[in-house]
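Hi Q.,

Before the meeting this afternoon, I wanted you to have the tetrahydrodeoxyuridine prediction in hand. No need to reply - just skim if you have a minute. The sequence and ligand are here:
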Amino acid sequence: MKPEELIQRALEARTRAYVPYSSYPVGAAVLSADGEVTIGCNVENAAYPSTICAERVALTAAVAQGKRNFVAIAVATRNGGSPCGGCRQVMLELGPEMVVYIADERGAYRTTTVRDLLPDGFDNARLNA
Ligand code: THU
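Predicted structure with the ligand bound:
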């Protein structure tokens, strides 16, 4: 799948974001090894810490659908905002080999990886060592 296609799915997901507090909609689309795409958007809460980020919605939904092998994730925001630290940790857990496309609302994007976003991250290899 071309990066542009995955980004398009993230942009569509972004239109469904529930963001009454920040007005900062985020969309995410994760590509599984089987070629399927699972989307997510941020869902905010009046109790602010109960907010869920778009990346985590997409990744946890994909796991619930039986996916385990992830190859790429696209994240779309107004201005090309980078994934938060908590989402980087979840990406490391579920898709450490993922390529990450970080897009703005026009679809302009930059490409990075989970390893580059979270160098020396804490993972299950360390936990079980
Ligand atoms: N947000 C995400 O959805 N993903 C991130 O990686 C960064 C932040 C959301 C959370 C909140 O709803 C809004 O963006 C502003 O922080």
